[in-house]
Amino acid sequence: MFSGTFYAVEMKRQLRNPFALVFTLGMPIAMYLLFGAGAEYGSAPMGKGNVAFYVMVSMAAFGTAVAMTSVCSFAASEVRQGWGRQIAVTPMPMLGYAAVKLATALTFSIIVVVVVGIVGWSTGARADDAWRWALAALIILTGGVIFGVFGLGVGLTFNADSASSLASIAVTFFAFFGNVFMPLEGTMLSIAQFTPMYGYVSLVRWPITEGTLLAGGSDNIWLVLGNIAIWAILFAALCLLGIQRSRRRR
């Protein structure tokens, strides 16, 4: 069912994709170095760690969301373009194709988390306990799956040629307005709480912030989890819509 050869080809293709490398690795590292390690407040205490750690996990979460979205949207676009019929004449079933794509997205996400984590550790990102690093990484990877669902929905619903770019740009837009790149406050923070990246990144930061916001005040864990659950349902609905549209086109 799972093809190691196909998986290796997919990984090489992703690692040779300049767009993927810039947005999933280059941008998170650059943003971390600029606003975390390179900032004069980077070593300042923040909950159970410091500001550099706070920025580091935020950027790792962003890179993971982009990786999951781009790989999964591209997979859905391939199926719409007729790749599924090509797979049907090979020994590998469509379930195996899906498994390879999911493994590729997850592996690329792990690379993002590890690389950003190494850069963070070597430039002063600190948490009070080692388990906080591990828990943050686990939340990043598991929570990032909802953006894989988003990518599938976009890939199945919109034009195949632009779906992957559209999905990745949308995640970047969500991040800017979701309290990911800069601490928002007032009306902007209130709006941000309804965006898909807000709940995900807030949960990623929870191991050191325990809900505390840089701008003051704190998050409610149930509202954060509710945000994630609602957007997961909406993204799943987008996938169903895409499936129905693809069937009508046939």
What's the short story on this structure?
By secondary structure, the protein is an all-alpha fold. Helices cover 76% and strands 2% of the residues. Strand 1 and strand 2 form a beta hairpin.
Defining key terms:
2 strands; two-stranded antiparallel ribbon; single chain; 2% strand; 10 helices; mainly alpha; 76% helix; 250 residues; globular
Describe the fold and architecture.
This protein has ten helices and two strands; from the N terminus they run H-H-E-E-H-H-H-H-H-H-H-H. The two termini are 27 Å apart. 76% of the residues lie in helices and 2% in strands. The protein has a two-stranded antiparallel sheet. With 250 residues, the chain is mainly alpha-helical. The protein has helices at 4-15, 18-37, 51-88, 94-122, 130-143, 145-157, 163-176, 186-192, 196-209, 221-249; strands spanning 45-46, 49-50.
**Helix share of residues?**
over 70%
Number of helices: 10
Biggest β-sheet, characterized?
Answer: 2 strands, antiparallel
Overall average residue pLDDT: 85
The parts where pLDDT drops under 50 for at least 5 residues are none
List the helices and strands and how they pair.
Elements lengths: L3 H12 L2 H20 L7 E2 L2 E2 H38 L5 H29 L7 H14 L1 H13 L5 H14 L9 H7 L3 H14 L11 H29 L1
Antiparallel strand pairs: 1-2
Helix pairs in contact: 1-4, 2-3, 2-4, 3-4, 3-5, 3-6, 3-7, 3-9, 5-9, 6-7, 6-10, 9-10
